[in-house]
Amino acid sequence: MAELDGSKTLSALLKGIAQCNYFNNPDISEEMLQRELYPQLPPHEFRSLLEKMRGVLKSIVSADMDLNQLEAFLTAQTKKQGGITADQATVIAKFWKNHKTDIRDSLITQSRWEHSLKTINWRVDLKARSRHMDHGNTPVAIAEIELGKNEQASEFLCLEFDETKINHILKKLSEVEESITALTHAS
Q: Is residue 139 scored above 60 in pLDDT?
């Protein structure tokens, strides 16, 4: 029964570390984690456990480990002097399997500095001739773009391109594609 309680407590500690380090939850502090989860441990022992678990989690998160990498890493950690126990490795593996996607998504969201493309819709319209315009019946491409950042309100752009502008954009995109191809084949 004590082992089960230890697993639950360690799992809660890992969740607390994730909330603090990866989800920027200001309500989680080192003192709160010790008070709620490990009140019987002296502060220096708790700090040592906390730093060990932070280090292990940081290694796992920064490598974005898949299950095979995780298993190899945790096995190595159990064999290392001053490493983790097999029971701790089991809890860490379960934690990572359950929280990998959320942690990864949070880090991606936090790493965006600028707006990102949310949606793009496009269509081709035909401008009709009128008495105020000499030319008519010319196709135009219309792109409606939604840009946004995290949970902020989106911005919408509506762009109109004639055939000349579309050809120019396509040429530039081809140049970008060629540059990327050259870079990826050079390395």
A: yes
